[in-house]
Write a structure and sequence with these properties.
It is a single chain. The chain is an all-beta fold and 124 residues long. The chain is built from no helices and eleven strands.
């Protein structure tokens, strides 16, 4: 069973930075992707970043490309989302997710396991 525990998040002013962490247990050998998604009230959950666990290939949505980075430590089963130059439109609940058979890293439908969510608020 894969369990994902998120940490990080909070409130920051525009232009600031935050780091989210996704701590997984039991996923190293069973999942091929870990992704980060975000959701605001009334909108669908959208993929913002994903990383291939084996090869380390990364994927980003156009809205965060160049500002967010995603990295992993397979030995510790942790994936981080570093968010820089944050904007008010980045305000959302952020979720990490893991999947065993993911082909499109930014498509939420392919992920099986989800973290509890953490709020990110960007406001002056």
């Amino acid at each position: 069973q894969v369990q994902l525990v998120q940490s990080g998040g909070g409130s920051v002013q525009p232009g600031g930075s935050l780091t989210l962490a996704c701590d997984g247990s039991g996923y190293t050998k069973s999942v091929n992707f870990v992704g980060w998604f975000r959701q605001t009230p009334g909108k669908e959950r959208e993929g913002v970043a994903a990383i291939e666990i084996g090869g380390g290939r990364t994927y980003f949505s156009n809205s965060v490309k160049g500002r967010f980075t995603i990295s992993r430590d397979n030995a510790k089963n942790i994936v981080w989302l570093q968010m820089n130059d944050l904007k008010p439109e980045d305000t959302a609940m952020y979720y990490c997710a893991a999947g065993r058979y993911v082909a499109d890293g930014l498509y939420r439908g392919e992920y099986e396991y989800w973290g509890q969510g953490t709020q990110v608020t960007v406001s002056s």
